[in-house]
Amino acid sequence: MSTMSPMMAILSRDLRLASRRPAEALLPVVFFVVAASLFPLGVGPEAATLKQIAPGIVWVCALLSSMLSLNSMYASDYADGSLEQMLISQLSGIELAAAKCIAHWLMTGVPLLLVSPLLGLLFGLSWEAIGLMAFGLLLGTPILSLMGGMGAALTLGLRNSAVLILLIVLPLCIPVLIFGAGAVSAAESGLSPAGHFYLLGAMFLLSALGAPVATAAALRISV
Amino acid sequence: MKKLPRLFTFAAPKTFYRLATVTGPWLYAIAAAFAIWGLYVGFFVAPTDATQGDSYRIIFIHVPAAWMSMVLYMAMAGWAAFGWAANARLASMMARAIAPTGAAFTFLALWTGAFWGKPTWGAWWVWDARLTSELILLFLYLGFMALVEAIDDVRRADHAGALLAIVGAVNVPIIYFSVRWWNTLHQGSSISMTAAPKMAHTMLLSMLLMTVAFWAYAFAVVFMRARAVVLEREIGADWVQALAAKK
Amino acid sequence: MVWNSASDFFAMGGYGLYVWGSYGVTAAWMLLEPLLAARRHSAALQAVADMEDEQG
Fold it and tell me: Can you tell me the mean pLDDT for B11-20?
C-alpha cells in the first residue's frame, strides 16, 4: 500500500468505495438508457427520423448522465473533512483532481460508452455509425469528466450544486456535443468524420492539461 | 513608492464610489448625444442598401451590441482575475456589476441578429458557428451570475466566479474568428485594421458612433450598479453609514 | 434626406417589423436597465439607513 503512488491510491480508494454501493454507481447509466428511450415515445417511431436524430440524442443523454454523478465527486470527502486533509498534505491538488476525474470516467463514462451501442441499435443506426459514435464517446466522455470535475470543485457544498454544475459545465461542453454528434452525421451524409475527431482529440488534450489545474485551484477556493 | 497611491487611489471603494457618482450623469449624456448623432446619420444620411433594402439598418445596433457583449466579457473576466490575484475587493465587485449588462448586450445581439436574419436569410435562427458561440457566451454570463449569487461567502464567490470567467474567456476569440475558421452563413468581417472597409462610409460612421454611444451607456449603467454593489458589500464601513445619514 | 414621407420612414421599405422590432426592444431595455440599477442602488442605501436605525 505504501508503495502505491498517491494518484493510484486515491483512484483505487474511490473505485473501492463505489463498488460497495453498485446500485448508486450505476444510476447514471440507468438514467442514460431511460432518458434516451423517451425520445422515440415523444418524437414518434418513424425509423428514418430516429436514425437521423439518434447521434444527437445519445450524446445529449450521455452529457446529462455524466453531469448527474458529478456533485458526489468531492461531496463526501468534503463533508467528513478528508478533502481538507488531502489538500493540506503533500499531495498535489492537480494529482488529486486528475485521480478523481479518472475515477469518475471509469465509473460513469466507460459504462455509458459500453451501453451506447445498445442505444444505437434501438434507434436503428448502422454498425458503422455505432462505431463512430462510440469512438467519439471514447474521446468525449473523458472531457466531460474533466470539465465536470472543475464544476464539482467550484460548487462544493452549495445547496443547488447539481443544477449549478449543469449550468456552469454545459456551455463549456457544447463543442464536444457538436463535434461528437456531428461526426456521425457527417459520415451518414458521406463526408469524412476525421475533422470532427481531430477537434475532439484536441479538446481532450486541452482539457487533460488544463482542467486538473483549474480544478485544483477551484478546490483551494472552495475549501 | 510615491506614485503608487495615486495609481491605485480609485481601488478604494470610497473613492471609486465618488468617481462613479460624479461621472454617471455625464456618461449618460455622452451616450445620448452619440446615439442621437449616430441614429441621425444611420436613418437620414446613409442610403438604402442595394441588396438588403432598409433592413440592413439593424446593423447600427446589432454590431455594437455584439462588440459590447465580447468586450464586457473580457472586462468582467479581467477584473475578476485581478480581484482574485491581487485580492482586490473592488475589482471583484466591478466584475459582478458588469455581468448583467454584458448578458443583456449578448441577448440584444442575438435578438437583433434574429430580426435581421429573418428577412435576409429567411430564418430567425441558424446553428452556425458564430450564432452558436454567441449563445454559449450568454450561457457563460448566466453561469457566472448564478455561481456568484449561490455562494454565501463573498470572497469564495468572488474567486470562484473569477476562475469560471477565465475558463470561459476562451469562447470570445472563438466567436470572433468563427467566421474565418468555418463556412458560416453569418457574413465575414467588413472592417479590418489593415484594409479599406467594405461598406459605405456613412454606414460605417453611424455604426462607429453607435459603438461609442453603447460604450458610454455601458459605463454609465455598470457604474450605477457598481455603486449599489459597493454599498451592499461595505455596509459596515463608516463612510457608508455617513452617506446614509446624510440622505 | 432618404425618406419621402413619414409613413415611408415607418415602413422601412417593407421591413418595418424587423427594424422596429430590433430598435424597440433595444430602446426599451436601455430605458429599463438604468432604472433597475438605480433602484438597486436606492435599496442598498435604504438597507444601510435601516441598519443604522436598528443600531440606534
Answer: 90
- Let me know if residue B10 belongs to a domain: no
Q: Rounded CA gap, A17 and A3, in Å?
A: 20
d(CA A67, CA B212): 42
What are the chain A neighbours of B163 within 8 Å (beta carbons)?
A: 150, 154, 214, 217-218, 221
Nearest to B246 by CA among C40, C52, C43: C52
A218 Rama class: left (phi>0) / alpha (psi -120 to 50) / beta: alpha
State which amino acid sits at residue A19. Answer: S
pLDDT for B22-45, tens place per residue? 999 999 999 999 999 999 999 888
Best of C1, C18, C50 to substitute, by most chain B Cβ atoms within 10 angstroms, is: C18
Q: Determine, for residues C40 and B228 on separate chains, whether the beta-carbon distance falls below 8 Å.
A: yes
Grid cell, residue C1, equals 434626406
What is the grid cell recorded at B245? 445619514
Yes or no, beta carbons of B163 and A164 under 8 Å apart: no
As a whole number, mean pLDDT of residues A80-100 equals 89
- Would you state the cell numbers that stand for residue B108, as one nine-digit string? 440584444
- Write out the three cell numbers for A138: 471514447
Instruction: Mark yes or no for CB contact B231/C48 under 8 Å.
Output: yes
Residue range C30-46, pLDDT digits in tens = 999 999 999 999 999 99
Show the DSSP H helices in chain B as ranges.
3-7, 13-40, 59-85, 89-121, 129-150, 154-168, 171-181, 201-233, 238-246
A130-187 pLDDT tens trace = 999 999 999 999 999 999 999 999 999 898 888 999 999 999 999 999 999 999 999 9
* pLDDT score of A20 more than 90: no
Rounded mean pLDDT, A184-197: 91
Please say whether the beta carbons of B42 and B62 come within 8 A: no
Total domains, chain B:
1
| Averaged confidence pLDDT in chain B | 89
Residue of chain C whose Cα is closest to the Cα of B227: C41
**Residue B146 and residue A168: Cβ atoms within 8 Å?**
yes
Torsion of CA A205, A208, A214, A220, to 10 degrees: -170
Residue written as grid cell 417589423: C17
Tell me how far apart the alpha carbons of residues B141 and B69 are, in angstroms, rounded to a whole number: 10
pTM of the entire structure? 0.91
B181 touches chain A (CB under 8 A): no
- The ipTM (two decimal places) reads 0.90
* Boundaries of domain holding B140: 25-43+55-187+197-234
CB contacts of B83 in chain A (<8 Å) are: none
Write down which chains contact chain C via at least 3 CB pairs under 8 A: B
Neighbours of B112 (CB within 10 A): 26
Distance from CA of C12 to the nearest CA of B (A): 6
Exposed e or buried b for every residue in A42-57, given b needs 16+ CB within 10 A?
eeeeeeeebbebbbbb
Q: Is residue B3 a part of any domain in this protein?
A: no
Question: What is the average pLDDT across B107-134?
Answer: 90
User: Per the domain annotation, does B243 fall within a domain?
Assistant: no
Q: Residue B49 forms beta bridges with which residues?
A: B53
